[in-house]
Amino acid sequence: MTLVRWNPVRDLAGRRFDSLMQDFFGDNFSDELVQQVWIPRSDIVEDENTFKVYMDLPGMRREDLEITLEEGVLNISGERANILNQEGVTTHQNERAYGKFTRNFRLDGAIDTSRIDAQFKDGVLVITLPKLEEAKPRKIEIKAR
């Protein structure tokens, strides 16, 4: 006989937790939870001339995305289709997120809206937001008297 040390955290984090939640919330608990918490990961970087936003959107198409800039707030929204509800298919595990998302970013500084560029390749969205000349940092010369 082999003794196995009981670890309540391991059991709680595993199937018992899933079973408990499904008993309490119903069979769609895990699907609803995954759908509600999908927030695509993003990075925002700034250099002297631009802001750049990088967002990971695997499995999406550019047609599924919408980008707007209003009053200094960049809005990115979209929807990734749920491929799990296909007829004749049984899902054994569901960890990937799907559904609608919206991300909003306030950008400090004046943006040249006529030169904004958005590229989407290999599941990564890259938005380049050029700064207006008056928003760029400039060196001020100190004059002698």
What can you see in these coordinates?
The structure is a single chain. The chain has 145 residues and is an alpha+beta fold. It folds into 2 domains: 8-37, no CATH class; 40-135, Immunoglobulin-like (Sandwich). It has 3 helices and 7 strands. It has helices spanning 8-13, 15-25, 29-36, and strands spanning 42-46, 50-56, 65-70, 73-80, 99-106, 117-121, 124-130. The strands form 2 sheets. It has a 4-stranded antiparallel β-sheet with strand order 1-2-7-6, with no helix packed on it. It has a 3-stranded antiparallel β-sheet with strand order 3-4-5, with no helix packed on it. It is elongated. The termini are far apart.
Question: Approximately how much beta-strand content do the residues carry?
Answer: 25-35%
Q: Can you tell me the CATH architecture of the largest domain?
A: Sandwich
Query: Main β-sheet, in a few words?
Result: 4 strands, antiparallel
When the domains are counted, the total is: 2
**Strand arrangement, largest sheet?**
1-2-7-6
Explain briefly what this protein structure is.
By secondary structure, this protein is an alpha+beta fold.
Keywords:
145 residues; 32% strand; 2 domains; elongated; alpha+beta; 4-stranded antiparallel beta sheet; 3-stranded antiparallel beta sheet
Layout of strands and helices, then pairs:
Blueprint: H1 8-13, H2 15-25, H3 29-36, E1 42-46, E2 50-56, E3 65-70, E4 73-80, E5 99-106, E6 117-121, E7 124-130
Antiparallel strand pairs: 1-2, 2-7, 3-4, 4-5, 6-7
